[in-house]
Structure formats: C-alpha cells, structure tokens
Amino acid sequence: MSHPRRSPVPTPPRPRPVRPGKPRSRQQDERPRWGMRLATTLSVLVLGAGGVGHAVVTSLDGGIGRVDPFRDMKNRPQGSRGTNILLVGTDGRDKITPEEKQKYRLGGAPCHCTDTIMMVHVSADRDRVSVVSLPRDSYAEVPEHTDEATGQHHPQHPVKLNAAYAEGGPSLTVRTVENMTGLKIDHYLEVDFTSFMKTVDVVGGVQICTARPMKDSYTGLDLTAGTHQLGGGEALQYVRSRHTDGSADLGRMQRQQRFLAALLEKATSNGVLLNPVKFREVAQSLLSSVRADEGFGVEEMLSFTAAMKGFSPSSSDFTTVPLGQLGVQIKGIGSTVKWDETKSKKLFQLLHDDQPLAPHAPPKPAPKPAAKDAKPPEPRKAPGSIVEVAPDQIKVQVFNGTRTDGLGRRVDDALHATGFKTTGAPRASTNLDMHRTLIEFDPRWDRSAKSLALALPGSELRAVKGLGATMKVTAGADFKDVVPVRAEEQPQGDFGTVTGDRVVCP
Fold first, then answer.
1. Which residues of 233-259 are buried (b: 16+ CB within 10 A; e: fewer)?
2. Residues in contact with 154: Cβ distance below 8 Å, sequence separation at least 6, in sequence order
3. Using N-to-C axis directions, what is the helix angle for 38-47 and 248-267, rounded to 10°?
4. Which regions in the chain score pLDDT beneath 50?
5. Tally of CB atoms within 10 A around 452
6. Distance (Å, rounded) from C-alpha 212 to C-alpha 291?
7. pTM of the complete model
8. So what's the pLDDT on residue 381?
C-alpha cells in the first residue's frame, strides 16, 4: 500500500534537565494492577485526528508534567524507522476517594512504583500501532549507575524489571529497557492512574465481551458471560484482576490489551472526536495523569494524529514479549520470568524494521455519499458476544416449528451467515405450534450448545442423551434474528499477537 509523502516531524530540542523526584519503594504485593490506564495515554495519539480545533488541543499542553529520562545517556541503540514510546504506569491511589477505595477494594498506600510497562511502536507512515507488554517481573539487569540523591555508585546487577524505576527513576528504566530490547526509545510517557475511572466515564464507558464468567475476590470483579458496558470503576476492576483463572499476571496483561483495543475504538469514534466539549473533557482527564519527556508535548502528539485519520482497532496489534522460563528463582530478588531470547530478539527486530507483528486487514473504504432517493441505511445490529466454541465448529440442523412458510430457511441462512455449520437443508418439525425456539443437544457438547444459545437469545436449551455432535434447532414463533457471535481470538504466530479488531466485541 502506497502512502503520500509527508513532511518529516521536526527534531525536538534537547530536553532541559529536570531532576526527577526519587520514587518511593514498593510497599506491598497486592496493590491495584492498573496497567490499562495506559490506554488513556495512547488514546491521545488518535484524539486529534477528528478535526478538533487546534487551539483546543494545544491549550492542554500545560497539563503535562515533565521529566528528563534521556539526560547524559551514552552508548544508546541506533534509531529505527517509526517511533518507539515507552509507557510506564505507576500506582497512585492517593487521589481516590475513600468511598471508591472501599467499593473497588483499593486498600493500602500507593507505592509510586511501576506496575505496567509497555513498548508502543508507531509506524513511520502513522497507519499502525504495535503494543508489546513487558512483564513487570521480567528478569533484568540494570546498567551501572550513580544514585542522584546519595551519590552512591551501583555496578550492573540483576533485578525485576519494575524495580529499575524504584532504584533509578525514569532514566534507569529507559536504559534498562533499551539494553533488553535493543530499541532506541524516542519518547517516554509516565501515567499516574488517579484519573483513569473519570476518563472511562467521560467517553461513556467501554464495552467488553467475555466468553465465561469472571470473578475475582481480590478486586471485586464479578461479570457474567456476555457483553458488558463498563464504567470507570468496573473497568478498573477488569484491568487489575489477576485471580480470575490460573493465568495470573499473563492473563491480566491479555485483558489489559483487550481493554486498550476497546477503549481505542471508543476514543476514535465520532462521538468523541467530533465533539469539542467531549474531546476537551477526555483530553483534560488523561493529560492530568501524564508525565512526559520535554520533547513530547501536545504539538508533537498532533504531528502523529494528523496522519492517523483512518486509525481504528484493526490498525493496532498487541502482544506480550515471548517468555522462555516462568518462576525462575533469583537469590535476593525472588520469582522472575525470563524472556525467550531467540523469539524476543526476532520480535524487537520487526519493530526496529517497522514491520507489523500480525497480518492486518485492509482498511475499509470510506462510504460513498448516498443518493437523494436512496434508502436509509439499515440500522446497525446490536453487538454480539464472545463465545467459548467458535461457530464454525458447531454443526446445526434447523427445523421449522411454526406454520410460517420459509422460517426454517431464514433461520438456517442466518446461522450460516454467522459462521455455524448448518446442513443447508431445513426441515419441518412434527410440532408446528412452537412458541419458543428450542435447542436440543447432546450433554457431551454442552459448551457448543451454550455458544449456539447466545446466538439465539431467548431460546430454550434441552439436553438429549445420544443426540450426537449435531445440534437440533427448532425455530419457534418468538424467533426474530440471529445475534453475531465469535470465539475469543487466539493469539497467533511466534509472538501470540492479535489485532485490535479481533479482540473488541463483534
């Protein structure tokens, strides 16, 4: 795909030295996992693409705190195509009300330490964003450095990755990540998470789909299977939960990525971009929680957004750095995770070469203006659900349980269009007075039956031993339409990558 030639972004001036305050040490292990508040920061890269007034955006620059993570850095990796942004999330509960702390189980004092670290690569053509999560417990070796507060010199030594911030602030964090990835970091963004709930509420909440119930007694998260509109507090519970299953922190990072894709979809909608009042509310909320290097202000962010008008979740890909060993005990450090050296090197080389981490769907063409006598567009169907079993793995025989001619064919066609493996030959039922649609299934295929039932809301499930792998659907008079469903997207390739359009709700 060819792109029009664009003027290069001016090189920012050398950042003015700013002495960062020494962060307090981590005080407890079970603190809120607020990593996806980084989503609000990444969203600012696309908020300016909707034609909102330039003055509205640039007037917000004063809300960004400043830090100098690149001061006196030497022997750095060579630059590469595109732009690499290091997003660091810190724990900051000091501004949350006592009522919110109690409701969302946010007890304990803030530690002001890194909780989530992400490498964000914006392509040189500004048409793609790749997000790589770096586990906070990754085994790392911080380079030798001198403590600015005490003047004490420290040789190179092993730590968990998130300890680099507590030991040497943003500068040591940048140096450590550059050494581990071989990528030169162009910009640094640090997020204090106190405005996260407000930001989610300002955009009107974020829609999340889950194939199974999710419950975490530590955070208070309690979601049924299906589609949910999460406000700020519920979103916070969703992104910090790590006890919903056995995947612990790795599962939490995957949920954070799903939430980021959903938030980007909402933040880039016209309801935000084309509404100056809404835009300003969102921008003020997220920028109030940001610290950035001196060269990365709103003007620089606009230089990205000017070329990202077609940005959407399909323009983004998400992954976690490939891991080799889990639970590696290091004396004096504790349990760590070690990266897969070969795969991680290949991943960061792709970012260096400005290549996508997963195949991307071509952008959708802009809709043509409707003719004066054209029919109004069909109303968009309500979003469907994420299911445990993919529709193309479920066999279905349809029966017409009414006296309405053609209903069986309509149901078969609708299920087939959604992906189910229908026989294509609907039959008449022996009972033609069915008021409610019935799904009969063999108990051995109960997960498939539940997935089919989500596509036929309101239908009755009935177990029939010995029925076999083919579901039996008898359409009743209550049938209206089939709700689109799809299975949770499984990570693909060497890096377990998914694109944003495959993790948002159908």
1. bbbbbbbbbbbbeeeebbebbbbbbbb
2. 142, 144, 145, 146, 147, 167
3. 30
4. 1-41, 45-53, 306-308, 364, 366-367, 370, 376-383
5. 27
6. 37
7. 0.65
8. 43
